[in-house]
Specification:
Mannose-Binding Protein A, Chain A, elongated, alpha+beta, 9 helices, 405 residues, 8-stranded mixed beta sheet
Length: 405
């Protein structure tokens, strides 16, 4: 991608790529106070749109950009399509919905499917961690004002229509280094906070970006979930403890038609000296079944900074926000909570879980859950496949990247 040049177009004139970014600038919940709209007499969502357009212009991005923001009367789903109203009223009774997306980040990396795919099926390929100039930042200082549910509808927390910067006001916000759900709804913030950004999306429909076709060992999050006694899970095959987890992974991989299903192991540790890191016998690289890379090497996998989240299951679906049993810290070493070697399903036991939508350390080391809670497991292949994905391919040179924390 070359910033500052018009987008390449399809034969019918449709721009091939639409871009998305998080603003490099921050401000309060009263968007009229941001420097980019000083003197423009704009308020609310209109001010947010102007901020997005100003940031795009500063980075020499062409196209029209709007803010991913909702209010009680106009939600982000309709707004991104250039319409008013909410999904409930059919975007003010629009005869047709023009749609929008899919989008790529400003570093050229695929970010998402179409707007409808985002709000109905969580189709997010990578976290939106680039600003308008393409700078990558996966730090936790990446909260974004949204007021928007993952389905594109209003949460009700919008700083009085994005006009309030008082300490008593609250609005809902998303978080940067995440995918499913949390990208748009992760926390509440006081309206007087001045360290939140905006999510900016280029309007209109575009063509899907090319995704990589390079070799890699496959990794997925299980489509099924269960409690901390893995022997009770479908596909456990009469086995117990970590062996049951491996059997589940291999059963799911086989049913989905993934290559070398017998090579999959569960990313699990226990209290008997078994560490997840030792169960990974290849040096990668790893990728999801859509071809998006997770990590370039084992060292890259264990550095608490994944390229994208392990938020796709073996069938190609993108689950919503969920926990994953791991008992493993970011270096793949056993934690102290492992549901009694994965034999315990009671609320008296505890197991460490990760978050499937995270690219930071919390992908594996997030929360302690009681063993009666329902979570998924990660499954890693120990064989690099020559090629496997169910999508179109393209140039892969840009995927060997380094991200900063």
């Amino acid at each position: 991608m070359l910033l500052g040049r018009p987008h390449p177009a399809a034969a019918d004139g449709t721009p091939a790529l639409r871009h998305a970014f998080a603003t490099s600038v921050t401000g309060s919940g009263d968007l009229s106070t941001w420097a980019d709209v000083s003197g423009l007499s704009l308020t609310g969502v209109a001010a947010g749109d102007a901020i997005c357009q100003a940031r795009a212009t500063a980075a020499s991005l062409t196209g029209t950009y709007v803010a991913w923001l909702s209010t009680g009367s106009n939600d982000a789903y309709c707004h991104v399509q250039g319409l008013t109203g909410t999904q409930v009223d059919g975007c003010s009774g629009a005869v047709t919905l023009p749609g929008a997306g899919p989008w790529v980040r400003t570093d050229g990396t695929p970010w998402s499917g179409t707007l409808d795919e985002i709000v109905t099926a969580n189709v997010l390929f990578t976290p939106l961690v680039t600003d308008e100039s393409g700078t990558i930042d996966i730090s936790n200082a990446q909260a974004r004002w949204t007021g928007t549910h993952p389905d594109g509808t209003p949460t009700g927390g919008d700083c009085d229509g994005w006009t309030n910067s008082a300490a008593v006001g609250l609005a809902d916000a998303g978080r940067g280094p995440t995918t499913a759900d949390s990208w748009t709804l992760d926390q509440s913030a006081l309206c007087n906070a001045t360290n939140l950004r905006l999510i900016c999306l280029e309007t209109g429909p575009g063509l899907p970006p090319a995704k990589p076709r390079d070799p890699g060992a496959l990794v997925f999050v299980s489509s099924i979930d269960g409690d901390g006694d893995l022997s009770t899970w479908p596909g456990a095959g009469g086995l117990t403890e970590i062996a049951a987890g491996d059997s589940v992974c291999q059963s799911l991989a086989s049913t989905a038609g993934l290559p070398d299903p017998q090579t999959f192991v569960a990313w699990l540790s226990d209290g008997r000296g078994i560490n997840a890191t030792d169960r990974i016998t290849t040096d990668g690289p790893w990728k999801r079944v859509d071809g998006i890379p997770i990590a370039n090497s084992k060292a890259d996998l264990l550095d608490a900074a994944l390229f994208t989240s392990i938020s796709q299951d073996e069938t190609g679906a993108y689950p919503g926000k969920a926990g994953v049993w791991t008992a493993s810290d970011p270096s793949g070493i056993a934690g102290i909570y492992h549901c009694n070697e994965w034999r315990n399903s009671s609320n008296a036991g505890t197991g460490l879980t990760g978050a499937l939508n995270s690219v930071r350390a919390s992908w594996t080391d997030g929360n302690d859950n009681s063993c009666d809670m329902i979570n998924r497991i990660y499954c890693f292949s120990n064989v690099v496949s020559v090629f496997f994905d169910n999508f179109e391919g393209g140039d892969t040179s840009r995927w060997d990247v380094t991200v900063s924390q």
